[in-house]
Amino acid sequence: METTRSTPETTRNDPGTARPPAVVATLSALLLLAASIAGQIAAGADYPTVPPGLVIPLVVAGLVVRRTNRWTTGLALGVGLFIGTGAILTPNTGDHLSSGDTALIASTAAELVALVTLVIAGAAATLPRKGTRH
């Protein structure tokens, strides 16, 4: 019977090295956030030429994919809190939801779902679990 040794090349697709569910949810929320901003722009919402709400989540998602650790998931959590605070404090969210434009309402609702998910999943991915060492 032949035994094989595990090398970094053979363990890349090992299910034991899959990302934790909280990290997957964080990445999904970052991508949904970016897609919802793109949807708002497509629906005619007024955004800057280079919309930070679209660019920042994509950059952070890239960082989390490249190197998943407490710093990058914490950065994702911070993005959710930062953009979420902006969504709550500005009148744009309420204006979009009451606009009567189905695409704008749907993309704004998706943004809010993404932000709530990002904060919860980002916190779960960042904060240490009881009984584990970081």
The number of strands is: 0
Note the beta-strand portion. under 5%
- Contiguous helical run count: 6
Structural class: mainly alpha
Query: What number is the mean pLDDT?
Result: 88
Fraction of residues in helices?
55-70%
Give the end-to-end Cα distance, rounded to a whole number of Å: 39 Å
Low-confidence stretches: none
> Which sequence of SSEs, written as H and E, runs from N to C?
HHHHHH
**Shape annotation:** elongated
- Major sheet: none
- The radius of gyration is 18 Å
Topology (elements, then pairings):
Layout: H1 8-11, H2 21-42, H3 52-66, H4 70-89, H5 92-97, H6 102-126
Give your account of this protein's structure:
By secondary structure, the chain is mainly alpha-helical. It has six helices and no strands. The protein has helices at 8-11, 21-42, 52-66, 70-89, 92-97, 102-126. Helix 3 (52-66) packs antiparallel against helix 4 (70-89). It is elongated. It starts with 7 loop residues before the first helix and ends in an 8-residue tail after the last helix.
